[in-house]
Task: inverse folding
C-alpha cells in the first residue's frame, strides 16, 4: 500500500522508496527524519511505484533489488521515463552484498548501491545531492 508523508518542515526533497519489506520502509521513514527536509512516498510494488511516480515527481529514488512484481534494475528506466527525468538520482538498496550487484546496478543506471539496512549518512548525502541537482535543473 502506497503511503506519503511529509517528514520535515521547509522545502522538502521528494524521495520515492520502493521496497516490499514494511520494516525497511519504516526504517527509511525514521532515517529520512534525520536526513533533513524530506517528503517520503513508499511503494511496495513496481506497479505502485509507477502509479505514484508522475504525480509525486520524486527527486531521489531508493529502489529494492527484489520486488514481488519485478526488480529495481528493470523498474529504474520505467520510473525515469514516467517522470520525464532520464538522469533522476537513484540508489539500489539490497540485502545482497553490494559488490556482487554493483556491476549490474551501474549498467542499469543506478548512481549507488547500498546494503540494507540503510545507514543515515549516505541517505543524508544523497538527499542533499538530489536537492542541489533539482535546484540546478530548475534554474
Result:
Amino acid at each position: 500500500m502506497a503511503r506519503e508523508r511529509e517528514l520535515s518542515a521547509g522545502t522538502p526533497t521528494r524521495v520515492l522508496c520502493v521496497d516490499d519489506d514494511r520494516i525497511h520502509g519504516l526504517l527509511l521513514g525514521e532515517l529520512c527524519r534525520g536526513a533533513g527536509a524530506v517528503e517520503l512516498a513508499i511503494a511496495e510494488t513496481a506497479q505502485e511505484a509507477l502509479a505514484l511516480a508522475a504525480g509525486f515527481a520524486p527527486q531521489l529514488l531508493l529502489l529494492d533489488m527484489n520486488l514481488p512484481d519485478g526488480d529495481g534494475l528493470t523498474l529504474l528506466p520505467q520510473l525515469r521515463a514516467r517522470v520525464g527525468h532520464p538522469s533522476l538520482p537513484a540508489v539500489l538498496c539490497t540485502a545482497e552484498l553490494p559488490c556482487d550487484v554493483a556491476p549490474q546496478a551501474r549498467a542499469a543506471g543506478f548512481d549507488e548501491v547500498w546494503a540494507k539496512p540503510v545507514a543515515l549518512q549516505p541517505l543524508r548525502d544523497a538527499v542533499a545531492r538530489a536537492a542541489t541537482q533539482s535546484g540546478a535543473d530548475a534554474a
